[in-house]
Amino acid sequence: MNSLRLDFRETFSDLTILSMGLGQDSHAILFKIVHDPVFKARYAPHKLLVLFAETGNEHPHTYDYMRDVTIPFCREHGIEFVHIVPEMGYHGETWQSLTHQWECGTPTIGSVAYPKTCTHNLKLVPQYRFVEDWIAERYEGIRNNGRKQAYVQFAKYYGKIRWLVGIAKGEESRVADAEAETALWKKQAITVEYPLIDVGLDRSGCQAYIKSLGYPLPMPSNCMFCPYGCNGMELLWMYHSYPDRFHEWAEYEQKKLDAHSSAERNLGVSGKLHKDGPRKGEAVTLIDLVEQYKRDFPDVTLEQLQEWKWSHGHCVSSKY
After folding, report:
1. Strand pairing report for 160-165 and 12-19
2. 310: which of 82, 166, 229, 280 is 20 to 30 A away, CA to CA?
3. Among candidates 8, 6, 16, which has minimal Cα distance to 191?
4. Closest CA to 17 of 102, 101, 126
5. Rounded to the nearest 5°, which phi and psi values hold at 310?
6. What pLDDT, in 10s, does the model give residues 289-320?
7. Side-chain half-sphere of 7: how many Cα atoms within 13 Å?
């Protein structure tokens, strides 16, 4: 257990946390911390804790990469990696997984038209709760009495926690406004940093860096049923690569539409309505979209779709 620091200056503690989405951006940060001494000295000079919170809806490749690359890499370099699963008790009761939340009460669905709360509830909340226990177990004088008081104690006695987030150069619009943060405990205890933006690494730069080290390229991180993945090439890739999962997604959407059939604007995943024709005013469904995209891209191959999926990054707009 670490010793209690006696001076209360506002400074950084010895703890850096990397919030992993298991995509290209966060892996670029992880690899640079190990392979770039200057980068390590700036962002993780002492203790590094790497966290991935389970969503229940990751792509199979993401789980494979975690098993075959991420976990062995962390083990080899003495880095603690924690896969936070619902059974550990840190996920919310209605947010055990992405689809579990849709099934609680009246059926719902993730949609471009609705506020995006899944990242906060499935990734950030479990990580914050886990760390509250983790620091109480490992640092002298910290007690987890709930309401994030362990963080406040930690900041007072040991300094702030660096919390690294993988947002690449060019995605600055996804950076949360620190001045707008209303949670006092977070202001006191955590400094969120965006190393890739600081060093000027964009999406293609992250890809090139990972490959230059000889590691296989992970796919961009996003849930399989992410509404921001319902554009042309993304949806066609899903339809052709995982047809069973695509139709499962479409079934969730239809359950939501059926449950809200009396609503004036009954929206599906795309957040769009048919503007004319016999279905005017009805939701443009995933099935509608994929049929349209098959007409728009009649000659596209699975290889081309795969290259697109791996190269361009995700379509997520959530802010951290």
Report:
1. parallel
2. 82
3. 16
4. 126
5. -80, -30
6. 999 999 999 999 999 999 988 887 555 555 55
7. 5
Question: Can you read off the two tokens belonging to residue 158?
Answer: 């040991």
> pTM score, two decimals?
0.91
Is pLDDT at 4 greater than 50 in this prediction? no
With 0-12 CB in 10 A as exposed, 13-18 as middle and 19+ as buried, what is 289? buried
User: Is-contact 252 107, C-beta < 8 A?
Assistant: yes
User: Phi and psi at residue 110, in whole multiples of 5°?
Assistant: -70, 130
**Which sequence spans correspond to the domains of the chain?**
12-212, 227-311
When computed from its CA atoms, the radius of gyration of the chain, rounded to whole angstroms, is: 21
CATH code for residues 12-212: 3.40.50
The conformation of residue 215, written as its DSSP 8-state character, comes to P
Give the three-class secondary structure for 112: coil
CA distance linking residue 318 with residue 320, whole number of Å: 7
Nearest to 152 by CA among 197, 108, 189: 189
